[in-house]
Amino acid sequence: MPMYPARIVASISYAADRMTRHDLAAGHIVSERDYMSALSTRIRDAWLPVGSAYVYSKTLSGSVEQALGCDTLIIIHDDDGAKLCLIEAKWPRVATKPNYRWDKLQKLKGTSKPISHFSDQLTRQRQVLPDVFVAEMFLLESPPGTKSSLLDEYGATLVPHKSASNFDATRRQKNVPWSNQDFWELICFSRKKTMNLHSLMYGLASCSIGQPIPILKNEVAIAVNDTENLISIPTSIDRLRQMGPEICNRLGLSTLLVLQARWLGNY
User: What is the Cα–Cα distance from 236 to 239, expressed in whole angstroms?
Assistant: First the structure.
């Protein structure tokens, strides 16, 4: 699969993340969904001079389950192949509310056993591995440029799913919600593997992370639970405008971002 203009998509995305974190720090953004919607819209608008782009964002009703344990799907593609990334955004408010409870308990499906909602999301995210690269995205409400030895100074901090899942396996009590102490321990546990949006998008676009997926009949298909149960997503902007809401509702996504490259090269 050819390389995309990796440095361009990475720089555009990171600049958008920096602006969105600024809005979060200023109080203009009040939720993870608002953050991801604003971020994706900014990336789309900046990408349009380079290629085609599509964004759909919605507020999920309480009856819609996050089937894949994530709220945002990003697709980067050219005419031949695509890279897919699922992101679950969390806002632990570590800068302003160190004891904030950002996780909750829920019943394990089919049982009365309580389980951490975030731990359950990590389990559901495994359904699409290895076709899709999955990451947990932690938002920070301090102004961009705030110095930190553990978190990104200008945007959000991302932890690959594998690292988050491996850390979750070390938590002795799965029936206890994640706390900010767990968050900091996760960051320390994953210190050599954490990313910002620049490194994530560059890795996807340059094919250094994620699995290339061929595009057949203007669709990209991903296997669920490594079976023949496929999820098909159109890649043409016209079809996405028609089917975007249905795709988000079916997969329990609040945001869908698709970037199509008109030209290639590792610029």
Answer: 6
Is 145 a domain residue? yes
pLDDT at 241 exceeding the cut of 70:
yes
Helix (H) or strand (E) holding 9: helix 6-25
Rounded distance between C-alpha atoms, residue 70 and residue 65, angstroms? 10
Distance between CA atoms of residues 250 and 244, nearest Å: 10
Give per-residue pLDDT as tens, 21-33: 999 999 999 999 9
**pTM (2 d.p.):** 0.93
* Residue 266 located in a structural domain: no
Q: State the Cα–Cα distance between residues 101 and 223, nearest whole angstrom.
A: 34
The candidate with the shortest Cα–Cα distance to 5, out of 201, 157, 239, is 201
Total domains, the chain: 1
